[in-house]
Amino acid sequence: AQSVTQPDIHITVSEGASLELRCNYSYGATPYLFWYVQSPGQGLQLLLKYFSGDTLVQGIKGFEAEFKRSQSSFNLRKPSVHWSDAAEYFCAVGAGSGGGADGLTFGKGTHLIIQP
Amino acid sequence: GAGVSQSPSNKVTEKGKDVELRCDPISGHTALYWYRQRLGQGLEFLIYFQGNSAPDKSGLPSDRFSAERTGESVSTLTIQRTQQEDSAVYLCASSLWSSLTDTQYFGPGTRLTVL
Asked: Do A99 and B99 touch (CB under 8 A)?
């Protein structure tokens, strides 16, 4: 079965600084990888996803993520954070068969705090 | 267009009572998913529907949990004889099809508190 580890429970970054949120996955086949953001009082919103092809994927709100098979990682990055980026970030993996039957397996999330 | 909606947004119940949670998916979405999010935890997949069929119910935590879906529309998650351990936010998501290449759109969730 697949699993996802987000090593950092909390991260504090100054506004305007760069950001990297770590995600490691465990899955035997080619993974389907996702990053979601959950802002207070709002549902989860998809930031970006990776299925195949170019290992650097661009998402919404200026986020990008890089798939590194050798490291089983899919880290999320942003060059310059804004106060509105403060939220909970979840990395998720889906079964490589492409079917939704197993749903998505989520990490426990990283809480991002932005300092003025 | 309208997104995924869930009701109620909050539910407080006493241990042993039954509760019913409702999810209205995005119109035209054939796949619907239920997840549970306990405090400080990631989302836990419970069950999915393709149309009104749920091929695999093994993700439901116990036989007190059941779910149904009417056509390709509303779904209800029912928890019988609630326990304090059932306290969590229950999230619903829908996608156009059940392929993982289709984005899952999440609702705002129902926060269930079992006293």
From this structure: yes
